Design the sequence.
């Protein structure tokens, strides 16, 4: 298992976007804070006991997938055809092993499917109905369509359909939220891991896949550099291979985690028109959580320090 040589570091996100204080009700803000804290503490409880970074990120993401507050799992948005197509990925920094699921329906926790793909298949990514069949083979819970129904998501979809728009979670005048959930961790053995899960874009068509399940774009982990989970307009994160680029800037460019993360979010993405943010932890336990939107649902905790939970800039 290896010696306990480091202090753990753990961070999570629940999506970035134009999160306005004026449109956020007091009860909804409290609900987000509580949901983020619950997911954060579930992961840190594993790390406190000397558990693996991989187990911590999976458990934290699983909890967020079970909440209708986030656009992942139960809270996934509607596609143009009124379905829920979900993506998820995870990566282990020590071995560079990874697993990803794309465009899957009915799977309660896509992050558990990503883990099964990593552990039990020779592939990195499986997608569509055959990936769901794979999930059943390993007793991953399958839910009926009704499980994923949420009144707010339904109205959001109807509004998008009426305008024939493809939007990112909440795309109304007051609030734009790029809905994804993710977690990054460094455990006490110095091992890194990253996990990301999403329901994608509201009213998306033709089986659109974003950056979340693409290793190197929305999710990446390497013990020599960092672990990264991204949230935002996925097409830009894919084009600029953001998660892997962050690792490369540390490895070859000799940049600090903060320098590299902020450059990508505030320079590279912003100049290209890409909105969103990322969370990352490096091999030394440093955490960076930059975003170029008005808000990002986020939280982090380092061993021996108080946890932080935030929404606005």
Sequence:
């Amino acid at each position: 298992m290896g010696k306990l040589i480091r202090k753990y570091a753990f961070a999570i996100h629940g999506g970035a976007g134009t999160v306005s204080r004026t449109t956020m009700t007091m009860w909804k803000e409290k609900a987000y804070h509580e949901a983020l804290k619950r997911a954060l503490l579930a992961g840190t409880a594993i790390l406190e006991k000397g558990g693996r970074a991989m187990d911590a990120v999976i458990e934290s993401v699983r909890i967020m997938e079970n909440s209708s507050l986030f656009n992942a799992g139960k809270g996934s948005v509607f596609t143009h055809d009124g379905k829920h197509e979900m993506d998820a990925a995870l990566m282990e920094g020590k071995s560079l092993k990874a697993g990803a699921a794309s465009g899957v329906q009915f799977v309660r926790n896509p992050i558990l499917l990503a883990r099964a793909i990593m552990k039990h298949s020779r592939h990195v990514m499986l997608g569509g109905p055959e990936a769901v069949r794979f999930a059943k083979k390993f007793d991953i819970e399958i839910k009926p369509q009704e499980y994923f129904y949420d009144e707010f998501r339904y109205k959001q979809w109807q509004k998008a359909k009426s305008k024939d728009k493809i939007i990112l979670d909440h795309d109304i005048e007051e609030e734009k939220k790029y809905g994804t959930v993710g977690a990054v961790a460094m455990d006490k053995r110095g091992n890194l891991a990253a996990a990301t899960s999403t329901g994608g874009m509201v009213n998306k068509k033709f089986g659109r896949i974003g950056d979340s399940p693409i290793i190197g774009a929305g999710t990446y982990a390497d013990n020599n550099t960092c672990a990264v989970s991204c949230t935002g307009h996925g097409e830009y994160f894919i084009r600029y291979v953001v998660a892997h680029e962050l690792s490369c800037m540390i490895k070859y460019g000799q940049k600090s985690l903060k320098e590299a993360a902020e450059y990508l979010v505030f320079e590279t993405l912003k100049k290209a028109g890409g909105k969103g943010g990322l969370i990352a932890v490096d091999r030394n336990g440093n955490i960076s959580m930059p975003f170029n939107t008005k808000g990002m649902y986020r939280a982090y905790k380092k061993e021996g320090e108080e946890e932080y939970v935030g929404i606005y800039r």
Remarks:
- Residues 210 and 234 are 5 Å apart (CA to CA).
- Helices lie at 26-48, 53-65, 110-120, 128-137, 151-163, 234-239, 242-251, 257-272.
